[in-house]
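Duplicate of #3305? Posting structure anyway:
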């Protein structure tokens, strides 16, 4: 891909209008409260929703505290992995900067209308500001995502395969477990195949024109992914403990759903929770509000979980996963601005100073020898 040119718009983070965010959150909250009241009063065909609300009023708060702790540990894992990948390409991307980028990206993803790509866009932007070129920043981000989503695909393949082969006590539609497992396995094999072919094709060339750039990106994407998979494999072979951050990011976030199922009732088999969580996350690619929640609830219902338990647990999980890190991320954006500004100040050329010439030494008066007295 051709190197992108820097513009003045790249020099600062977008400002956040807290009043607009508050208004944006207040309207859905008011609608949800009104709908909750109507559901409790209506009953009848909406009894499942009314039962879900009653479950929410009877939850065990200890599980809520545990879920909040799980979510914080999940983000700590994300920070550790980003620190590992970033520090290999720039000394500026240490633990502090990685934490700021992670939490700032969480705020961008959850509070701004970015279609779920706010975090990735902010991370790429931070890599550029840290001094990486366009291609190096993209490759670093892809390497990070390959490591992260390798855990994602592996979890779907294992949990779906175990259910499809009857290795667990879970019972549900065969297609709902087998198809995701096969698709995840195919994704893993495809990534390894791209890594094997990486470096054998034509090197990317700079092109001009919008259509030509789009064609160039489409042509160069498999090569870029293959190189990122190679970089990810080298990271895995290093056995750095921070690689566990990828497992912590997904595992402890899924543990929030597990804790909420415990808080509201009896959870299903562990494999069902894992499959429901990860397949539900796939729905995040659909630009429809509530797609993730709907996907998780649908999988849980298909495997025999009670409707009110599934609905309440998933909504509680989403509330913790969204609104716990969001205010922390908003507070972190200010620190990230200062960090980026500091990098910019370091990169600015220093004005040349005129050479300092030494001042001439003052002439010492010549002293004449005293004349002898006549």
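Output from current build:
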């Amino acid at each position: 891909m051709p190197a992108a040119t820097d513009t003045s718009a790249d020099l600062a983070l977008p400002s956040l209008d807290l009043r607009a965010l508050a208004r944006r959150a207040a309207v859905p909250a008011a609608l949800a409260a009104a709908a909750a009241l109507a559901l409790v009063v209506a009953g009848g065909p909406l009894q499942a929703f009314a039962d879900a609300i009653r479950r929410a009023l009877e939850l065990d708060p200890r599980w809520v505290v545990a879920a909040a702790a799980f979510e914080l540990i999940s983000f700590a894992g994300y920070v550790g992995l980003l620190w590992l990948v970033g520090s290999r390409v720039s000394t500026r991307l240490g633990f502090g900067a990685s934490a700021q980028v992670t939490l700032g990206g969480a705020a961008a993803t959850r509070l701004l209308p970015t279609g779920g790509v706010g975090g990735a866009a902010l991370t790429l932007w931070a890599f550029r500001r840290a001094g990486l070129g366009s291609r190096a920043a993209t490759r670093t981000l892809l390497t990070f995502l390959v490591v992260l989503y390798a855990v994602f695909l592996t979890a779907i393949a294992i949990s779906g395969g175990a259910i499809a082969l009857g290795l667990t006590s879970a019972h549900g539609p065969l297609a709902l477990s087998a198809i995701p497992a096969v698709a995840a396995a195919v994704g893993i094999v495809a990534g390894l195949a791209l890594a094997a072919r990486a470096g054998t094709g034509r090197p990317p060339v700079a092109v001009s024109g919008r259509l030509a750039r789009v064609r160039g990106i489409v042509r160069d994407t498999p090569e870029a992914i293959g190189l990122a998979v190679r970089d990810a494999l080298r990271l895995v072979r290093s056995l750095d403990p921070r690689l566990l951050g990828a497992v912590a990011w997904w595992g402890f976030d899924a543990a929030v759903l597990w804790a909420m199922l415990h808080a509201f009732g009896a959870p299903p088999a562990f494999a069902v929770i894992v499959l429901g969580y990860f397949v539900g996350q796939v729905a995040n690619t659909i630009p429809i509000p509530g797609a993730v929640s709907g996907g998780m609830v649908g999988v849980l219902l298909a495997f025999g979980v009670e409707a009110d338990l599934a609905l309440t647990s998933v909504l509680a999980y989403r509330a913790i996963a969204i609104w716990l890190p969001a205010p922390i991320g908003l507070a972190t954006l200010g620190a990230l601005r200062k960090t980026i500004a500091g990098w910019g100040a370091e990169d600015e050329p220093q004005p040349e100073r005129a050479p300092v010439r030494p001042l001439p030494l003052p002439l010492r008066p010549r002293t004449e020898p005293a004349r002898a007295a006549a």
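Confirmed duplicate; merging threads. The chain has a mean pLDDT of 79. The CA atoms of residues 52 and 308 lie 4 Å apart.
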